[in-house]
Amino acid sequence: MAGLQVISSATDIAAIHDCIAAVADLAKTPGEIRVTDQRRVDALLDICTDILESGRFGGSCLPRQHRRGPQVQVTMPLDAVLGADVPCDLRGHGPITADQARRIAADGELRRLVCDPLSGTLLDYGRRTYQPPSQLADHVLARDRTCTAPGCRQPAARCEIDHTIPFPHGPTSADNLAVLCKHHHRAKDGGGFTVRRHTDGWTTWSTPMGTTVSTPPRRLWHPPRPGQPQPTDPANSAGHQHTDGEPTSRTQPATPSTPTLPAHQDLSTTLNTTTPDTATPDNAADEPPF
Fold it and tell me: Does residue 279 carry a pLDDT above 50?
């Protein structure tokens, strides 16, 4: 449950009360079982929802934020949609019951949201929105680290987030989003280059001449391999001495080996790779189109 308190002048409160009471009396039906106060709360709700649904008030359109009008957003697990009694969330309020969420959803538009099962962060926002929300954008930027075009090392923070399969044919999801610098974004969208992302994370670029090159998914860290010597603590190893006075030999950390990748043709010249030194200055870059 929640409450709403309005504090204003006596004349303002009287006008609000008379308006709500009139709408409540208008909605009264034969055999009405709601008490007067219940009908007045429903009347206030009807007034507000009518304005939100129409998007207009007093002949003017309601202001829009992030290219959309005011919305009532409820997040509910699939189990709650199917009838289970599990907690749901009302944006701006907090937890609500599954019954309350289902009543709201009955008059609303359902949108599929896929979240990380461990952290709860949003990974997939469905096909109805073009611009990825901040959580999804952060995920893609952290995952790709740099422009995903072959040979390009433009940092992700200076790049744009692109739908590999153009929206709305492709979803706004982690699997269909990739980081591209402005140069390679334009090469993909209008320069004759094509890009295909595979289920294993590899990406294949094809040039207008038919040459293809594949790149592996970026690794955020390299887990140690079985049997690989572990680096020793220099502070400890330097102080250990043999009984004859000679210092022990220090175990050097093994140099991490580079994973063996398929041999691919270098397209750095063909793709005109952008490097951080020759990148478009921050003050010259416009807002990413996503």
Answer: no
